Amino acid sequence: xxxxxxxxxxxxxxxxxxxxxxxxxxxxxxxxxxxxxxxxxxxxxxxxxxxxxxxxxxxxxxxxxxxxxxxxxxxxxxxxxxxxxxxxxxxxxxxxxxxxxxxxxxxxxxxxxxxxxx
Length: 118
What we know:
This protein has one helix spanning 85-96; strands at 7-9, 32-37, 46-51, 54-60, 71-72, 75-76, 79-80, 108-116.
């Protein structure tokens, strides 16, 4: 398995968003699948950043991770704690992985960009 930090977006039409990573801007699609490797220390947080006129939350879809050197679309993301009960439940599931014996350094997880606001 490739141990390098990777981000694979299904679309290649990217443009800079103010104060955020490069993304598809107004053309960003909700539920877009992105493959990324997360740092285990940061997996307890979710990534949230602003697109023009909307917020998108990058939601962890699989709770495997070990180390994060996350650079999405060429810029380091800022992390913010999640607020909804459902998201908290997912964080609790991630935290429960800390006690498990992880035999590999990296796990590939899938994230989903979900639109917030309008």
